[in-house]
Each structure stands twice: as structure tokens, then as C-alpha cells.
Amino acid sequence: MFETPLFLLAAAAGALIPLLLHLLRSKKATPLSFPTIRFLMMAQRAASRRLRMENWLLWLLRTLIMLLIGVAFATPVLRVQGIQFLGRAPRDVAIVIDDSYSMGYQAGRETIWEQAIAIAVELLDGLGENDRFTLVVARQEPHTMVAEPIMDKEEGRAIIQSLSLGYGTSRLGPAIEAAYDSVRAEPGRRMRELHILTDNQALPWEGVAERGGEQEDIWQALQEDSATSVYVSLLGVRAPENITPIDMALTPAVMRAGGGGQLRVAVGHNGAPRETTVSLYINDEERARRSVMTGTPQARRIDFALPGLPGGVHPARVEVPGDNLPVDDAFHFLIRVRDELPVLVVGTETDTFFLRTALRAAGAGDTMTTLAVDELPGHALAPYAVVFLCNALPLSGQTIEAVERYVQRGGLLVLFPGLRAAPEDYQAWRSLPGSPEAIEDLPRARQRRPLAWAQRGHPVLRGLDDEVVAPVIAKQRHLTWQDWATDSVPLILSGEEQPFLVERPYGRGRVLMFSVSADRSWSNFPLTPFYLPLVAQVVEYGAGMEAGPPFLWARRAIPLDDILPDAEADTRLIGPDGIPVPVRSIREEGQVVLTVDNMTRPGIYSVDGVDGRQPVAAVNMPREESNLTPIEPATIQERLALENLYFADSREELQTVLEAHRVGRTYDEFLLWVLALLVPVEFIYANRLARARGRPGGTLPVDLSGHVQRGQAAGAKQGATA
């Protein structure tokens, strides 16, 4: 192939010049007066044969020089792959576009996402008449936009330009597999290109090229495929900077009306440490602001004191100043404030005396309901934040089912054992942390046991390890277990291994089970200084579970029951942009489950109620995507282990790489270097021939009889003329 083929005509014309010069060259004969002409003619024929051979080599050398000059100006191009006699081989081009929200980073006048879209369109515009393409969008799971190779560039351009940047993370490995799998099975002599358009973030490359099963076959085929070239466009900046709130925690999870609380925020960053501010907004009103230096331990623990708020659900957010990635500058959450925290206590007056006293001291006395064991069946449990069962077993199967249904829907069940229940009375429960084995009476020597916090930082235990140092209780008896559920977690240990308080998640709720009773008949636990704060935090813990988490991580599908336990099929959920969010119903295990689709946009979601629009959920993007730590091309090369792998960091560099590997390599410079060597060779050779010919004339050796001496051809040759 030639970029300027017209110069080939000039090369052909130039090659004729030496030939014409050699053919039209005038040969002047110098007459010689010598009586024996036939001897002179013999010497002339011998010299002419040598001269013709020398002129033939010189003509070839000069013709080659003229051809090289013309061919060099024609700019010859040799394709690296797919060489054909006429034209180039058709291509199948697979394009992978990274759809993680870090692609929204502002790099100059454009975001990285806008650069990727522009490059994808340019790739389509550069396709030939017989070229085809496929398109895959890399998200947490690959989304194939064009599965089979097609030639309709207009359709492809419309699909690409209709894409919008999402709010999630991405994995490039599965997307690359899907893209290559869409073009590798095509028969025929077609070249293949795989383009990966992403930023230079390291996160999406984690786990890429993982081996196993079908994936191993795909990667092995790609590594062995010499007809496929892989182009990676790392469009991000080399040293990105970003500051974002990455997490938060509310204490308590549900506040009391008029009471305060505490908010703890963690801030992450990329780039050099610098001073920034973190602002707290409640109901779109700024309430507090903190200055912090990024990259320090203080940035991981910024505390705000929450003011007293009226009952209800209050939308809130923490926010940092705007930067090049504005989508993660705010972290949304809900502050739930209740006028009261209703609690249900089931048991006799003796069994519940100390518990009721502690609840009154914790401020829950006005909202506490006490029931005898025989009053529990048929009682509505949904309004209560916590249900305490104090020596209330055994219960009927129907009552057990009602209590466990309450837990599944987000309630907190706290169970204290007692002498009314034998170990077999616990077997009908499916939600308990373990199966009790026996009630063990302890000898005096083993009654005093220190307590140890097994899960420091748990909401039930938060602050207790600071208030009480190595608490010790005296136990006369305790409940022992023979086995545990796999998801059970001990919160407090008595001694080294004996569980004292165990938690198990069940549905959306939790079950807390003590190894001692709620009164003094089993231990002095109700008289210890941590009994009251522990009961208070259990109530707050239950209220937080009943109300739901302060925020949700964005994902494609979320059960509506996680947001609105009492939602119905006609519930209308409104997104942060004011547009209704689709709610669909699916059937799982014979039950209808309502699911919210595409709950990915960060912000506050609400429903239309009697008093107007009410916030019901706060959604945030997964913050691992905000970590913009870059990746080096050498690391990608090591992970992919591909031979035909090329990198570019801009639109212009990608075009240069494509010209070198798609169009081919130019050899004009190489030909000019050859010319630089041939020209002096021709000059030296031509001058040497000119000197060897000498002048016309000479002598022939003749003996006394007038005969020319044979064997003296050298003299004859010197006397010959061309």
C-alpha cells in the first residue's frame, strides 16, 4: 500500500532516464592509421565486451536509485497484520466503555466519559465498508448493547450517543470477556480489534483475567489469537485529586423528639493532603461546619453534635467543597426522630421487675406495655420497637410464628430464660441463636465470672467498655447451648468462652438471647452498673432496626419492603429528580414481593402522603469507586498477558497508535537511508570506470618481421577505443 501512489508514475519515468542516457550516448570513434587493421579490430571487440558489461551494471545502479526516489516519495506502507494483495482485510471491532461514576471526572473542558463517547464515535466513523462492530458497557455486570457484529454505523452512533453515565462501579474483566466472545467465533479471514475505553483507575482492573471454567477458555483464546489487537485507552489524569465523605454513623439510630445525638463522618481523599471543610445540612439548612486536613486520622473521624429535632423523618447530608468529581461530594442520610419508643415486656411482675425499672430510668416508661404470658397470643406486635420475653416460654406454635414474623419484618426480640422453660421448649423456634442444652447450676467456686466484650463497637455495647472496667457478675445458674446457628455472633462472653449475650440476624430483624434471667434468681446481673445503659441501648438498637437504616447503597434492584414495610402495589416512589421510580411485583416462594428497579441515583427518595411528600430512603453510591488510585500500563500488561496489547492516554495518541498498527508502518525514511548509501556507491563506481578507460590510441608490439606479438593483449586493449 502507498499513501501517495501518484509518485509511482514518477518512479517509473525516472527509471527510464538512465536507460535512455545509455542508449542515446554518442560513441565517437577515433581513426587510427595502422596498416594491419584486422589486429586493431580484434582488440576493439575485446574491449567493447568489457565496456558493455560495465555499463550494464552502472545502468542498473542508476535505475535503482531513480526507482527508490520515486517509491520513497510515494510513502510505502506495510500492514503489520492482514496483508492482502489489494487493499486491507476487513475488521470486526469490539468496543468496551467503562460506565463507572469515576468516568465523570472533569479533565480539562470535557469529562472522561465525554472523551470516551467521542472516541467511540470516531472509531465507528473510521470503519471501512466491510468492517463491523459490537458494543459492551462495563458495569458491575457487563451490559451488551450490540451483541452480534453489525455494519450499520448510523445505528451504532445513535446507541453510543444515547448512553448516559451511571452512578455505580464497574468490572472490566467480564466486559472484556463478553466483547471478545462476540467477535471471536466469526469464520473467515477478518482482523479483530478490541477497544477498552476507561479512566486510569485501578479499581475496575481488580480480578481481571481471572481463570476458571468458561472464562479460562476465553482468556486463553484471546492470548493465543494473533489476529486480535487490544487497545486500552487510559483517559484519566495521571495524578487525580478527589475528596469525598465515605461513611457515616448516627448515635442513636433513632433520636427522641427534642433530644440530641451524634453524627460521625469519615472522609477519604486522593492526591496531596490539603485543608478542606465538611458541612452538615439538615432539611437543606446548614447546621454545622468543620475544617479538616485530608490524609490525617482526624479526617476519618469528624464528629457533629446533632441538635434537638421535632418528631418525623428529616433529610440530611454532609458535603465537601466541589472538585473535579462532583457526583460524590455529598453523602445523604435520614435522621429519624420519634416522640416515643414503644416497648413490649412479656412476663410476670416478679420476672420483669428489674427490667421495667431500668426501662423507666431510660425514659421508656411512658411507652412501655406489660403483658402476662397468656395475654401475648393475638396481641399486635408491629407497633413495638422491642419485644422482651422474660421467662415467657413455652409458647404455642401459633404465637411463636407470630413473634418470628415480627422479627423477620425488622423487629428486635430480646429473650431472657427462666425456670418455666425446659431445653426442649426452645426446639420449636427457628430464629434463636442456638439450641439450649441444659440449665446448669454453678458451684460457689465458679459463680464469679468477669464479662468480656466480644464485639466492641456494636450498637448495643457502644460506650459500655469505656464506662465499666472489667465488670464481674455472680451467677448461680446459666443456660448452656449444644450448637449454634452459623450466623450467630456472641456479643458478651462470661469467662473465656461461655456466651452471655448472643445475637442472630433473622430476616430484617435481630434476636438477642441472654444466658441468665432478667431477675436476681439466676445472677446479680440486674444490680450491676452496666445493666441500665445496656437496656437503654437495646431499646435504641431496636428502634433503629424498626425504622430502617439511615441510608442505602445504590443498586439495581431493592426490595420495597426494606424501605416501606407496609407498601402496596400502587405505592408511588419519587426519585431525587422528582421522577417516579418503577415498582414491579415478582413472585418468590409463592409470595408477591415488590421491588424498586434502578434505585441508583444518589439522593433522597420519597412518597406522596397525606401531609405532602415524605422522605423514606436516602441512597448513596458505593464509595470504593471514589478511590481514584491510578494503574500503570505495565500492571495491565502483566495481568492480561497479551502480545498484541497497545496503550494510549488521549484521543490523539490513540489515533497515532491506530495508524501504526491498523493502517501500517511507513518505510519512506528507510528507503531514503538506502538512497544515502547507494548514491556515493554510484559516484565512486562511475568515476572508477571513467579512469579505467584511458585516452584513445596506443601501440601494438610488432616484431622485426612486422607481426604483432600475441599474448600482449594488454597493449592492444590500451590502444582500443570505445
Plain-language structure description:
Helix content is 28%, strand content 30%. Strand 5 (132-138) and strand 6 form a beta hairpin. The protein has a nine-stranded mixed β-sheet, sandwiched between helices. Strands 6-5-2-7-8-36 form a six-stranded mixed β-sheet, sandwiched between helices. It has a five-stranded mixed β-sheet with strand order 10-16-15-12-13. It contains 14 helices and 37 strands. The model is unreliable at 80-87 and 712-722 (pLDDT under 50). The chain starts with 6 loop residues before the first helix and ends with a helix. With 722 residues, the chain is of the alpha/beta class. The protein folds into five domains: 7-76 and 668-719; 91-163 and 174-227 and 651-665, Rossmann fold (3-Layer(aba) Sandwich); 242-339, Sandwich (Immunoglobulin-like), CATH 2.60.40.10; 343-547, Rossmann fold; 552-623, Immunoglobulin-like (Sandwich), CATH 2.60.40.
* Rg over CA atoms: 44 Å
User: What's the domain count?
Assistant: 5
Q: Sketch the major β-sheet.
A: 9 strands, mixed
Low-confidence stretches: 80-87, 712-722
**Given the structure, what is the number of helices?**
14
CATH architecture of the largest domain: 3-Layer(aba) Sandwich
What oligomeric state do the depicted chains represent?
A: single chain
Q: Can you tag this structure with a few keywords?
A:
722 residues, alpha/beta, Rossmann fold, Immunoglobulin-like, 5 domains, 6-stranded mixed sheet, 14 helices, 37 strands, elongated, disordered C terminus
Q: Could you outline the blueprint of secondary structure elements for this entry?
A:
Blueprint: H1 7-24, H2 37-73, E1 77-78, E2 91-98, E3 106-107, E4 110-111, H3 112-125, E5 132-138, E6 143-150, H4 153-162, H5 172-184, E7 191-198, H6 213-224, E8 228-234, E9 242-251, E10 254-256, E11 261-270, E12 275-282, E13 285-293, E14 302-306, E15 312-319, E16 330-338, E17 343-346, H7 349-361, E18 368-371, E19 386-390, H8 397-408, E20 412-416, E21 434-441, E22 448-453, H9 464-467, E23 472-474, E24 477-484, E25 489-494, E26 498-506, E27 509-514, H10 531-547, E28 552-553, E29 555-559, E30 573-574, E31 580-581, E32 583-588, E33 591-599, E34 603-609, E35 612-620, H11 633-640, E36 645-648, H12 651-663, E37 665-666, H13 668-693, H14 713-719
Parallel strand pairs: 2-5, 2-7, 7-8, 8-36, 10-16, 17-18, 17-19, 19-20, 20-27, 28-35
Antiparallel strand pairs: 1-37, 3-4, 5-6, 9-11, 11-14, 12-13, 12-15, 15-16, 21-24, 22-23, 22-25, 25-26, 26-27, 29-33, 30-31, 30-34, 32-33, 34-35
